[in-house]
From TrEMBL:
Any single GO BP term: ribosome biogenesis
Keyword Translocase: no
Gene Ontology molecular function terms on file: GTPase activator activity
Lineage: Bacteria, Pseudomonadati, Pseudomonadota, Gammaproteobacteria, Alteromonadales
Protein name: Der GTPase-activating protein YihI
Subunit structure, interactors included: Interacts with Der.
Species assigned in the record: Paraglaciecola polaris LMG 21857
Length: 169
């Protein structure tokens, strides 16, 4: 009996395919454009020029450089309120207004009583005391504390005469 060689051709064993002309095209879904996320590759190294004709006065800004706005490192919970400074006609008026300031007086009393002040209160007191001293120097007003700290020679002599030597033996 003659032998048959194996072949890869589909013969009677498999189901025959329909001719290409009679086949129905496979239903294909309409193509959708994918959304692109982010910038295309290479934009970091080759920044895109937005417009070649720049207006006069404006320079080309590098898109890689971010904001120059300073970032606060310490967060303050209290919002800062700006108050308008009163304008004075003379240093004497300003000096009088500093001395009449109620908040300043209360804070000085707190300091005299050795109570602690907040950071904002300390800044306020230091600023007003510096301005008060500056105005006193400008007007030629001497502090009473300075005259008591520098006793005259007569006072020193009187103090020397009143010393009891027997205490030191």
């Amino acid at each position: 009996m003659p032998r048959k060689k194996k072949s890869r051709k589909i013969g009677q064993i498999g189901t025959p395919l329909a001719p290409k002309a009679k086949r129905k095209p496979a239903a294909t879904a309409p193509k959708r454009n994918k959304k692109t996320l982010g910038k295309p590759s290479g934009t970091r190294n080759n920044p895109e020029q937005t417009s070649t004709s720049n207006k006069q006065g404006k320079s080309i800004k590098d898109p890689r450089i971010g904001s120059k706005k300073p970032i606060p490192l310490i967060i303050d919970d209290a919002p800062k309120v700006k108050t308008a400074k009163p304008k004075f006609f003379s240093p004497a008026q300003e000096l009088e207004s500093i001395e009449q300031n109620e908040r300043f007086g209360l804070l000085l009393e707190k300091l005299d009583a050795d109570e602690s002040l907040s950071k904002e209160e300390r800044i306020f007191v230091n600023k007003l005391t510096a301005r008060h001293q500056e105005l006193c120097d400008l007007l030629g007003i001497a502090n009473e504390d300075d005259s008591a700290a520098d006793p005259s020679e007569d006072d020193l002599y009187a103090q020397f005469e009143s010393i009891d030597i027997n205490k030191f033996k």
